[in-house]
Write a structure and sequence with these properties.
about 120 residues; alpha/beta; 3 helices; about 25% strand
Length: about 120
């Protein structure tokens, strides 16, 4: 799985990108989590702590962060790319590159996410 990361504190993060907010995605996350828990338990004999991080593209401005099915609940951490100051980031990075300056790690990550910040054409 290319969206699973081991964090410095020993927890795992599953990161997924979405352009829609729906129940099918939450069911998909539960499936991801159960497969990861099973695999890591079989490999290491421990139940890992997992964070579910959902990055929403620019056309999503709000979404439910929880999903409760009675015996189990899912709490997601959410990032709304729409909240990123895209124009400011673009100008800063462009200026640095025009002046032959290198980019910081954070600026590189922002540039990776920046294309997701735009709303889709139907929203313009």
């Amino acid at each position: 799985m290319d969206n699973l990361f081991l964090l410095e504190d020993g927890t795992y993060a599953i990161v997924d990108y979405e352009s829609i907010d729906n129940v099918k995605n939450r069911i998909k996350y539960i499936n991801y989590i159960s497969r990861i828990v099973k695999r890591l338990y079989e490999d290491h004999g421990e139940i890992p702590k997992i964070r579910m991080i959902v990055i929403y593209t620019g056309n999503i401005v709000a979404a439910k962060s929880g999903f409760d099915v009675g015996c189990m609940s899912l709490q997601m951490e959410q990032v709304f790319v729409n909240d990123i100051p895209a124009e400011e980031i673009y100008r800063t990075v462009k200026d640095k590159l025009l002046h032959g300056m290198g980019l910081a790690e954070q600026e590189l990550m922002q540039m990776i996410i920046l294309p997701l910040a735009g709303k889709d054409q139907t929203e313009r």
